Amino acid sequence: MCGRFAFYSPSEATAALFGAEFSQAVLPRYNIAPTSYIAAIRKSDENSPGLAMFRWGLVPFWAKDPAIGNRMINARAETVAEKPSFRAAYRKRRCLILADGFYEWHTEGGVKIPYFISLASGEPFAFAGLWEHWQSKDTDESLQTATIVTTAANDFLSQLHNRMPIVLDPESGGRWLDGDMGMLEEAVANSPGFRAWPVDRKVNNARNEAPDLIDAVGAAIS
């Protein structure tokens, strides 16, 4: 799964990398947790990519209670096309969730150690994502929410966890936004190179937010 990540690269330049129109500045974040607002790229009504902010944790349009989104931070690639919570968004409402890296916890000696994971190149990237618009039938409350699509971990990341988010580059990201129905398996097969290192356990507290959260406190894995 992917339950915590970071996005600190300049948002204007990262949006441009994925061919999106820049519309708002996004503050650097080093400890993004579920229910936070996250930066993503989606197609507009005019079919051009643009930057949007979504609450992390997808609330299906048919949901009676938006609290369901707290359990919908990830969607499994293996079932995303059929599962009722995600299938409509998979067909019609895809997005690219901008990131520089993500965290995973690995148990070592009975203790869960957080690791920060980024591309081997150090460049920003995008998670394959889905988004939804939810409107309360009883009040004026409405939400735009998103989820990250995950898959089985590759050989490198399986050292830390059995799942990983699907990471897209600008070319594959464009195909994802265009609704390509056959590209998930291809994206998984062509998973990019990663690097990972242990970080301080203060990242466990989602209220902690500082650049030093991604600093290594031990040797990187190889």
What is this structure's SSE topology?
Blueprint: E1 5-7, H1 11-17, E2 29-32, E3 37-43, E4 49-56, E5 74-76, H2 87-92, E6 94-99, E7 101-108, E8 111-119, E9 125-135, E10 142-152, E11 163-165, E12 167-168, H3 170-177, H4 183-189, E13 194-198
Parallel strand pairs: 4-10, 5-10
Antiparallel strand pairs: 1-2, 1-7, 3-4, 3-6, 6-9, 7-8, 8-13, 9-10, 9-12, 10-11
Summary of the model, kept short:
The protein contains four helices and 13 strands.
Written account of the structure:
This protein has 222 residues and is mainly β. It has a single domain (5-214), classed as hypothetical protein yedk fold. It is 13% helix and 36% strand. The chain has helices at residues 11-17, 87-92, 170-177, 183-189, and strands spanning 5-7, 29-32, 37-43, 49-56, 74-76, 94-99, 101-108, 111-119, 125-135, 142-152, 163-165, 167-168, 194-198. The strands form two sheets. It has a five-stranded antiparallel beta sheet with strand order 2-1-7-8-13, with no helix packed on it. The protein has a five-stranded mixed barrel with strand order 3-4-10-9-6. The radius of gyration is 17 Å and the shape is globular. The two termini are 21 Å apart. The relative contact order is 0.19. The model has no long low-confidence stretch (mean pLDDT 93).
List the domain count as a whole number.
Answer: 1
On the 0-100 scale, what is the average pLDDT?
93
- Number of helical runs? 4
Examine the coordinates and then state which fold CATH places here, giving the name of the CATH topology: hypothetical protein yedk fold
Sheet of most strands: 5 strands, antiparallel
For this structure, what is the CATH homologous superfamily? SOS response associated peptidase-like
- Beta-strand content estimate: 35-45%
What would you call the shape?
globular
Assigned CATH class:
Alpha Beta
Low-pLDDT runs of 5+ residues are none
The total count of strands amounts to 13
- Structural class of the helices, strands and pairings? mainly beta
Strand order of the largest sheet: 2-1-7-8-13
What is the annotated CATH architecture?
A: Alpha-Beta Complex
CA-atom Rg in angstroms? 17 Å
SSE string, helices as H and strands as E = EHEEEEHEEEEEEEHHE
Helix percent reads 10-25%
